[in-house]
Amino acid sequence: MSRTSTPGASRTTRTTTSTRTTTHPRRRGRALAATLAGLALTAVTATVTVTAGPAGPASAAPVHEDRTPQGRTLGDLAARHDLAIGTAVDPAALTDPRYRSIASTEFTSVTAENAMKWEVTEPVRGTYDWSAAERFMAFAERNDQKVRGHVLVWNNQLPAWLTEGVASGAIDRAELRGILKKHVQDTVRHFKGRVWQWDVVNEAVTDSYDAVDGRIGYKGFWAEQLGPGYVADAFRWAREADPKALLFYNDYNIDAFGDGGPLDKTAFVYRMVKRLRENGVPIDGVGSQAHLSTRYGNYSAFQIADTLERFAGLGVATALTEVDVRNLLPAEATSDALNPLLQAQAFDYSALLTGCLTSRHCISYTVWGFDDNHSWTNTWDFGSGPGREALAAIYDTGYQPKPAYRALQADLAYSAPPLVQRRIPQRPTP
């Protein structure tokens, strides 16, 4: 997922046909978002004590670090649970010192928002450009952060030479399969030993609203060209390239189970993963993107925990990989209009984290961008117009923590045994 991708729009209709979108002006979204700066909770600051020096006048003593829960980072608070707290990072935004400071200190894992996607890494066939990805990796390594690699196989953000070659007939099925294998293995080998989790296959199945013949199935470019067997192939190729990385299937709208019927996407993915595992495919984890909206009914922490535990029963780890909670912006951004949205948003962020904490096999919780300035929702059209559903992050446009951030702090600080235990590490499947 990204600001230039087809997004996972939880519980809402979305467009799935385009592979890229041009940048839409953010003025409207930012103008409304800017009002949040005065509404967000003030960050806890370090305390300064004043003492009398030997000459008599008061002098400032060294600044003392605030170790109350509100003064600690999310990553620090999550450490005792062995839970990685992550964010998607845009390398271009790292030129902003405030963005860079938060990204480098608040989180213990990072995901490249776009820098590792195929259209970026191989814009010309046979010529790799790892520069953006390496800038991202250098940032992560400099700050001792784990890396989630995103993404190896996806129907979107493919290089033009690939899609146009298939459309024209210049690339046939056999050649296409070889190209995909080469891409997966070249990418994984380039970053071998440096990536903790890979999103190997992303968004491979339909939703209930675009299902064919009344049932969930496989969708998109790769299924159409190679058939559903490409999913197993991709995991096997990735494992050959790096025996130690954790290999994930990643998707949206799999936050909770439905009725288990033919239109239950979560149940379809569950059965898919079960079948892959039974057939010896080296899949180590399932990532639930968790793109939510306050427009729709909330999931409870119990639903989230149940879903994660059921997937864990298959022998895989789980992760919440692209968490954000957007809001339908009111006509007038008054405090009376915004406060209920911020409280609902905080509930959703908290429910997701509580569910993850309860399941010991949920090993990471990643927000898809941490501030309202850089959220992909600022320009995306979810059906109400570009940027009309936004304010999706845990920091506002002034880099001040929102109620959702404080809710995450409290969840991490106050969760404890017996209901919340340390994570159980996942071992790579041979």
Describe the structure.
It is an enzyme of class 3 (hydrolase). Keywords: Carbohydrate metabolism, Glycosidase, Hydrolase, Polysaccharide degradation, Signal, Xylan degradation. This is Beta-xylanase. Pfam families: Glyco_hydro_10. It comes from Terracoccus luteus. With about 425 residues, the chain is α/β, with parallel strands linked by helices. The chain has a single domain (about 25-415), classed as TIM Barrel (Alpha-Beta Barrel), CATH 3.20.20. Helix content is about 35%, strand content about 15%. The chain is built from 13 helices and twelve strands. It has helices at about 25-35, 75-80, 95-105, 120, 130-140, 160-170, 175-190, 220-225, 230-240, 265-280, 300-310, 335-360, 405-415; strands at about 50, 60, 85-90, 110, 145-155, 195-200, 245-250, 285-290, 290-295, 315-330, 360-365, 390. The strands form two sheets. Strands 3-4-5-6-7-8-10-11 form an eight-stranded parallel barrel, surrounded by five helices. Strands 1-2 form a two-stranded antiparallel ribbon. The longest helix is centred in the C-terminal third of the chain and has 24 residues, at about 335-360. The two termini are about 30 Å apart. Mean pLDDT is about 90; it is low at about 1-60.
In short:
34% of the residues lie in helices and 15% in strands. The chain is α/β, with parallel strands linked by helices and 430 residues long.
Tags for this entry?
430 residues; alpha/beta; TIM Barrel; eight-stranded parallel β-barrel; two-stranded antiparallel ribbon; 13 helices; 12 strands; 15% strand; disordered N terminus; glycosidase; GH10
